[in-house]
Design goal:
Largest sheet: 8 strands, mixed
Strand order of the largest sheet: 2-1-5-6-8-7-4-3
Number of domains: 2
CATH architecture of the largest domain: Beta Barrel
Distance between the termini: 66 Å
Oligomer: single chain
CATH superfamily of the largest domain: Sortase
């Protein structure tokens, strides 16, 4: 009996040793991966900081707070933010006067911290204005092919997916930026229900959102003096989107 126990113990020792080595190795690899991931994020953060800093130097303007990109296009523009929503209506990113204006963030929000971002830009049926590209979203196929936009800042990257598009004629609730929990959820519901298309996207009623606004030149609304194209996106956490 004792001899059998000894044999079992002898057989178990190498198994225990191998198991211990495997667990140790696995934990070390996980630990390494953790630090590698942190380093990768740090490198990405440094890259974005350098990009925005370079733009600020290029335009000689620290009002540049980030960039806006539409995925699957070559559209990438600086986003500026002034002390009000008037200055950049008629000034370029270098602060030079121009009716073209800039793509600018509402002065009431923080590009890194606010759960709702509101960005404006000009459009025209005659001139090639900064937000002319948004008119493409009247085409439902274009929405399917270009559902994602990205906001890059010195601090982070926020990725968004479209969930609503409509034309505002008299009701400008989309410009609200101050909410409590209930009113925020109602606001998202309002934007979804206003959409001219039913856009299938998985989103929560407390997601961070981005609203892009420009003048509309849609032929069906020519008789209206004021008409604004409003496109809403919700933030997503999909690391595969570049």
């Amino acid at each position: 009996m004792k001899k059998s126990i000894k044999i079992i113990i002898i057989l178990l020792i190498p198994i225990l040793v191998l198991t211990t080595v495997f667990i140790y190795k696995n934990n070390k690899e996980k630990e390494f991966d953790k630090f590698l991931l942190v380093d990768e994020k740090k490198e990405e953060s440094i890259k974005y900081q350098e990009q925005i800093t370079k733009l600020q130097q290029e335009y000689n303007n620290e009002d540049i707070v980030g960039t806006l990109e539409i995925i699957n296009t070559d559209y990438k523009v600086p986003v500026v933010q002034g002390d009000d929503n008037k200055f950049y209506l008629k000034h370029l990113p270098n602060k030079e006067y121009s009716i073209m204006g800039s793509i600018f963030l509402d002065y009431r929000v923080n590009i890194n911290a606010s759960r709702k971002l509101l960005i404006y830009g000009h459009n025209s049926s005659v001139y090639d204005m900064p937000f002319k590209i948004l008119e493409n979203y009247y085409d439902e196929n274009y929405i399917k092919e270009h559902p994602y936009v990205i906001i890059k800042t010195k601090d982070n990257v926020r990725k968004y997916e479209i969930f609503s598009i409509y034309i505002a004629l008299t009701d400008y609730k989309y410009m609200n930026v101050n909410f409590d929990e209930n009113s925020y959820k109602e606001h998202i519901k309002y934007l979804r229900e206003k959409s001219m298309y039913e856009i299938n996207t998985e989103m929560k009623d407390d997601d961070n959102i981005l609203v892009l606004q420009t003048c509309s030149t849609h032929k069906d609304y020519q008789k209206y003096k004021k008409k604004y194209l409003v496109i809403s996106f919700h933030e997503i956490k999909n690391e595969n989107i570049k």
